[in-house]
Amino acid sequence: MDTFHGKASFVDEDHIRVGDEVLQGKHILIATGARPAPLPIDGAEHLRYSDDFLDLEQLPDKLVLVGGGYIAFEFAHIAARAGTEVHIIHRGEQPLEQFDSQLVDLLLQKSEEVGIHVHLNAEVKAIRQQGNTYVVSGTRNGADHQWQCGLVVHGAGRIPNVEGLELEKGNVSYTKKGISVNEYLQSESNPRVYAAGDVTATEGLPLTPLAGQESRAVSLNLLEGNHNKPNYKVMPSIVFTVPSLGSVGLDVEQAKKEGYEVKVNDMSKWYTYKRTNEKFAMAKVVVDKATGRILGAHVLGGKTEELINLFAMAIQFDLTTDQLNTMNFAYPTAASDIGSLF
């Protein structure tokens, strides 16, 4: 296997350029992932990104995170617990918009308790450096506002990374959601080209396990011909805050519209969470009453990743509540509570 280091771009439908080299391939795979979404902010060059944050040797006294997504909340919970004053600036009325609004509200309460200031209906207009600090200017609820800090981090989402690939020369069609592919992850406009991961416009969420699944599917299709399709039936997603927030399957609002039962449990007084003094713990489980099948689960708590994975497995294999209730789980664990959640 030969490796080439440099920026790649299409020359035509089956040639790409890497530096001074022009390579021809029977097939070409695009797996360039996603990049931070560009923001229309004066002074955007002062923004730092997730890699920069993770490379920090020392946290600033004050930190501003632009955007209210996964990255912003996970970094905020790290920094606040290390003693940094943290501000999240989010344009909308609710951050983490793809998650259950009631659970997000509980997470916001906990975030505020640990010293994270979440500014909703707020927008950043400009960033300027002032000595060793930064002044972030914008609006909050329609009024002008400023925040001073030692670091400004981009947490406002990511977009498919197609910049510089010159896809038009390769006859590779794409939209703002990514490269247009068929069910086998093959380009709809150039059959020589395949794509996998966050750069593709599929129904899959931009999550590491799904990118891995798409990559495996592409590998098999390249080696053995088109026959393998990614499975998007179950896409569990977690925000690794403290407590963590997770979701899988049908959301609550859609479930209510379709007439499914939604079981809501405040778990904060349950032994699993009371023994660790967790003030915020809640679960919502969507059940098809006619069949007993579990269709969705939404959880906030210190054991979210354990519960969400169990519910994901139940949804994937069409397990019913009766079947889950026959299972003996180790006690005391979050899993041992699962029969009380539906």
Detailed description of the structure:
With 342 residues, the chain is α+β, with helices and mostly antiparallel strands. It folds into three domains: 8-36 and 159-224, 3-Layer(bba) Sandwich (FAD/NAD(P)-binding domain), CATH 3.50.50.60; 44-156, FAD/NAD(P)-binding domain, CATH 3.50.50.60; 237-340, FAD/NAD-linked reductase, C-terminal dimerisation domain (Enolase-like, domain 1), CATH 3.30.390. It is built from eight helices and 21 strands. A five-stranded antiparallel β-sheet has the order 17-18-21-20-19, sandwiched between helices. A four-stranded parallel β-sheet has the order 8-7-6-12. Strands 1-2-3 form a three-stranded antiparallel β-sheet, with no helix packed on it. Strand 17 and strand 18 form a beta hairpin. The longest helix is centred in the middle third of the chain and has 17 residues, at 208-224. It is flat.
Largest sheet composition: 5 strands, antiparallel
CATH domain class name of the largest domain:
Alpha Beta
Count of individual domains: 3
Please tell me the CATH architecture of the largest domain by its name: 3-Layer(bba) Sandwich
Low-confidence stretches: none
Mean pLDDT: 96
Order of helices and strands: EEEEEHEHEHEEEEEEEEEHEEHEHEEHH
**Total beta strand runs:** 21
Structural class: alpha+beta
- Tally of alpha and pi helices: 8
Instruction: Estimate what percentage of residues fall within beta strands.
Output: 25-35%
Q: Strand order, main sheet: write it out.
A: 17-18-21-20-19
Bulk shape: flat
